[in-house]
Amino acid sequence: MRQKTDLNPELQEIKRLRKKHNLTQTQLAKLAGVSQSLIAKIEACTVDPTFSHVRRILEVLHSMEMEKEPKAEQLITHKIIVVGKNEPLSKAIREMKNYGISQLPVTEGGRVTGLVSETTIIEKLAEGKNPSKLQVKDVMEDAPPVVTKTMPLSAVTELLRHSSLIIVAENGRPKGVITKSDILKRIT
Length: 188
Fold this sequence. Notes:
Blueprint: H1 9-20, H2 25-32, H3 36-43, H4 51-68, E1 83-84, H5 89-99, E2 103-108, E3 111-117, H6 118-126, H7 136-139, E4 146-147, H8 153-160, E5 165-170, E6 173-179, H9 180-187
Parallel strand pairs: 1-2, 4-5
Antiparallel strand pairs: 2-3, 5-6
Helix pairs in contact: 1-4, 2-3, 2-4
């Protein structure tokens, strides 16, 4: 018989996740296509289960976790303020001031091709560029990440660690945006 400390940490998660989802051993066994006695033996640390059995059990439990997690569509701001790539920079600045936002997706032909932000504008000004002579394309950075509306919150927050804005799209067309402030609003 194995000691509990020798077990793979994922095996120890089975009981915790099962209880978290209010499943009996029998219910979990049925969902995973294994026997209830196997679940009981795994949780009691009296069996060394096959990889395929453990994988099936954990897939069931993790899919239940994903179903409960909020999706991008629940975090989205549907009103998208965009600016065209060939527009004067002054228009982008005006839109940012009017809406109280710090960044704008840049579009061309209905698709997001870049991002203009206060930071990129300030950088150009610091280089001595005259803002009245610049177009959006002169200051835009790479396009922000584009996700589907079913993207889980954990993936969205991971993307927001590296990007200030995420586009939520359907069939390649932007349907909304998610910013760091949208995430903060959700948790307060």
